[in-house]
Amino acid sequence: MKVTAGKRKGMQAVSNERGVIAAAAMDQRGSLKSAIAKDKGIDKNAVTPEMMAEFKGAVVRILTPYASAILLDPEYGLQAAKGRAKNAGLLLAYENSGYDNTRPGRLPDLLDDWSVLRLVAAGADCIKILLYYTPFDPPATNEIKHAWVERIGAECIASDVPFFLEFVGYQENGDEKGIEFAKKKPEIVTKSMEEFSKPQYAVDVLKVEVPVNMNFVAGTRACKGESAYTRDQAKDLFRRAASVAKKPFIYLSAGVSNDIFAETLELTAEAGTNFSGVLCGRATWKEGIPVYAKQGLKALEDWLSTEGVKNIKNVNDRLGAAKPWFSFYGATSAAALAD
């Protein structure tokens, strides 16, 4: 396996000294606006760009000393990116927040006035997109999504920059937090990892959900009632999903609490999967939203400096089982993959 100079440089920029990706995510836009508005008791449209940039800036300044990289959006995050620690690389999101709700299938869209070329010029070490995806959608819907990902992969090849693809499973008009979806989730995650490992997409890192809902794993701290899988079954589902990946993959926190994500990583370690790290957002900083909304920037900074730092360290402490991204290709260093 050979990796081009630009792709290798980008991957090294967002990895730690072990070659593990211990990245923080702060590219939320619509959901962050809604959360701030709710806690402030104001309309979502009253949340200003300045508020968004201020919140993101505080997260970046205070948490990136403990992260190998930060994921931001170019809409509100570019100023914040300048305040990141020197050890932290930069991933920039390329997709619009949300999805097209005028048609079925949660179809994605790209930011109108950005391209991969422009994101790299703005300082991106890597490009990230989010895609809502399920193999159970009609083939015509998924063909649109497949072609869309192929185009972005081609753009990243042209700019010689790593492409991180985040895919999130869903079901239309269903309870995605309930037990029935929990039973479908392993197949959704596994088949998605298999699909986007194919070479035509030119994805460099798969940013994936864990293949189980921890709330339904019997015997875990997260499970408070009925279960969909035993602990051993859950570990087997982790291994099954990992076995189909043909590209390095990292886990996303998917909005769960810090405690649940930490327990998830413990289960991942027990399963022995060859994951290469995490890209963790809300599990680190989401409890700071009401602090900011009700008490302002200084209170948020104080919260981040204590609870936020504790949260990110809690995640980092569970990355001992993560494997360097280059080891996925059988290499002992990034340099060994030189093209």
- As a whole number of angstroms, the C-alpha radius of gyration is 19 Å
Name the CATH homologous superfamily: Aldolase class I
CATH hierarchy: architecture: Alpha-Beta Barrel
Helix content: 40-55%
| Termini gap | 8 Å
- Let me know the average pLDDT: 96
- CATH top level is Alpha Beta
Work out the number of β strands: 8
**Can you tell me the CATH topology?**
TIM Barrel
Largest sheet: 8 strands, parallel, barrel
- Give the strand content: 5-15%
Question: Which structural class is indicated by helix and strand composition?
Answer: alpha/beta
| Bulk shape | globular
Integer count of domains: 1
The DSSP helix count reads 12
| Strands in their spatial order, largest beta sheet | 1-2-3-4-5-6-7-8
Element order, helices and strands? Answer: HEHHEHEHEHEHEHEHEHHH
Condensed summary:
Helix content is 42%, strand content 12%. The protein is α/β, with parallel strands linked by helices and 339 residues long. Helix 2 (30-40) crosses helix 11 (288-295) and helix 3 (49-63) crosses helix 12 (297-316).
For the structure shown, list the relevant keywords.
single chain; 339 residues; alpha/beta; TIM Barrel; 8-stranded parallel β-barrel; 12 helices; 8 strands; 12% strand; globular
Describe this structure in words.
This protein has twelve helices and eight strands. The protein is of the alpha/beta class and 339 residues long. The protein has a single domain (5-337), classed as Aldolase class I (TIM Barrel, Alpha-Beta Barrel). The chain has an eight-stranded parallel barrel with strand order 1-2-3-4-5-6-7-8, surrounded by five helices. β6 (205-208), α8 (231-244) and β7 (249-252) form a beta-alpha-beta unit. α7 (179-196) packs parallel to α8 and α11 (288-295) runs antiparallel to α12 (297-316). The longest helix has 21 residues, at 139-159. It is globular. The mean pLDDT is 96.
